[in-house]
């Protein structure tokens, strides 16, 4: 009888132990955060701070794992994965966001924002909410990192005025408004995945590209692109996006921790981007890249036909509201 009692007691204890492990496993939530940039980019550095804070504040219950370098696919792949619920989180630039609605290529209208500060005010306020409200997908935008102002590099010649782009084969993201912009300026634009870009420039498949300074440096484009033109023709965000399925798996307290940690990370990422722009410009100059200043007024006039073409699709009033923010 004693043996039976001892056996039952041991069985009860074992069951309780297994149940406790199962509960611990259920309470541990892993959110994979994918993005295309490498570990030197402000996106990774700020996201590491974000992940560390969430892990600490949730006592290890919520773990955000970082997957840089397109390990989880390109932006389009990740955007589709989020909508399907097969991915948890991603940093999506305009190329990824337009999977949800073509109107989000609004961010690639040339010279849409007057300054960084104006872009922050727009994205963080009611105008930003209005822009993102066109998303009809099972995802949630938690906030916006910045991709920064984009500039042109090429291997052919200095580009100072729009006419200098004539005949230049330039890679752009697969975004119609961007392709139309460069075609209208006389270049030969071609859409290409970011991961293929360096090799394409190295092999002279394309003559140039356009990206923020931090991307130009972190991707070592200066090795094959001796000319840099400071056009600042586009400022666009990286939307920190989470699937509704992943968001709903968090408790209200965990959601609050994630949001507050991200808000801090967004401020940090933007500071890093501003600082990186200054450092990258100095670095590129020291590396022997020829840096050419441009006149924004001349370029703004040259791209006016793009606004005429897209005013109805994006909303002339919304565009005017954005451009009014100083």
Straight-line N-to-C gap: 85 Å
Question: What is the CATH top level name?
Answer: Alpha Beta
Percent of residues in beta strands: 15-25%
Mean pLDDT comes to 91
Rg of Cα set: 23 Å
The secondary-structure element order is HEHEHEHHHEEHEHEHEHHEHHH
Shape: globular
Question: Percent helix among the residues?
Answer: 40-55%
How does the major sheet shape up? 9 strands, mixed
In total, the number of strands is 9
Kindly report the name of the CATH homologous superfamily: Bacterial extracellular solute-binding protein, family 7
Low-confidence segments, given as residue ranges, are 1-25
- Count every helix, treating DSSP H or I runs of 4 or more residues as helices: 14
The CATH topology assignment is D-Maltodextrin-Binding Protein, domain 2
Structural class: alpha/beta
The CATH architecture can be named as 3-Layer(aba) Sandwich
Number of domains: 1
Task: Please explain how this structure is put together.
With 326 residues, this protein is an alpha/beta fold. The protein is built from 14 helices and 9 strands. It has a single domain, classed as Bacterial extracellular solute-binding protein, family 7 (D-Maltodextrin-Binding Protein, domain 2, 3-Layer(aba) Sandwich), CATH 3.40.190. It has helices at 2-27, 42-57, 75-84, 94-97, 116-124, 126-132, 176-184, 197-202, 213-218, 244-248, 252-286, 296-302, 304-314, 316-323; strands at 29-34, 62-67, 89-92, 139-154, 169-172, 188-191, 208-212, 227-243, 290-293. Strands 1, 2, 3, 4, 5, 6, 7, 8 and 9 form a 9-stranded mixed β-sheet that branches. α2 runs antiparallel to α11 and α5 (116-124) crosses α6.
């Amino acid at each position: 009888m004693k043996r039976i009692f001892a056996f039952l007691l041991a069985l009860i204890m074992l069951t309780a132990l297994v149940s406790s492990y199962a509960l611990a496993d259920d309470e541990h939530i892993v959110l994979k955060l994918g993005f295309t940039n490498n570990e030197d980019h402000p996106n990774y550095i700020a996201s590491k701070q974000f992940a560390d804070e969430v892990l600490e504040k949730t006592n290890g219950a919520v773990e955000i794992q970082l997957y840089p370098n397109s390990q989880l696919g390109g932006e389009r792949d990740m955007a589709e994965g989020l909508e399907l619920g097969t991915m948890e989180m991603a940093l999506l630039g305009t190329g990824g966001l337009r999977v949800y609605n073509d109107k989000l290529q609004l961010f690639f209208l040339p010279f849409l924002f007057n300054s960084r500060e104006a872009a922050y005010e727009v994205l963080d306020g009611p105008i930003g909410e209005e822009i993102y409200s066109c998303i009809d997908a099972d995802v949630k935008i938690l906030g916006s990192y910045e991709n920064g102002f984009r500039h042109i590099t090429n291997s052919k010649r200095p580009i100072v005025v729009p006419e200098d782009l004539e005949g230049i084969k330039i890679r752009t993201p697969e975004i119609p408004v961007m392709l139309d912009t460069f075609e209208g300026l006389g270049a030969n634009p071609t859409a290409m995945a970011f991961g293929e870009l360096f090799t394409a420039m190295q092999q002279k498949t394309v003559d140039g590209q356009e990206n923020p300074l931090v991307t130009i440096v972190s991707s070592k484009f200066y090795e094959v692109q001796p000319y840099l033109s400071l056009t600042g023709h586009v400022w666009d965000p990286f939307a920190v996006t989470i699937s509704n399925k992943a968001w709903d798996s968090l408790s209200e307290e965990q959601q609050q921790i994630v949001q507050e940690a991200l808000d801090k990370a967004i401020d940090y990422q933007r500071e890093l981007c501003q600082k990186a722009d200054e450092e990258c410009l100095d670095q590129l100059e020291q590396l022997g890249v020829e840096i050419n200043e441009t006149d924004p007024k001349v370029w703004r006039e040259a791209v006016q036909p793009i606004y005429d073409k897209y005013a109805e699709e994006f909303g002339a009033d919304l565009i005017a509201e954005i451009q009014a923010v100083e």
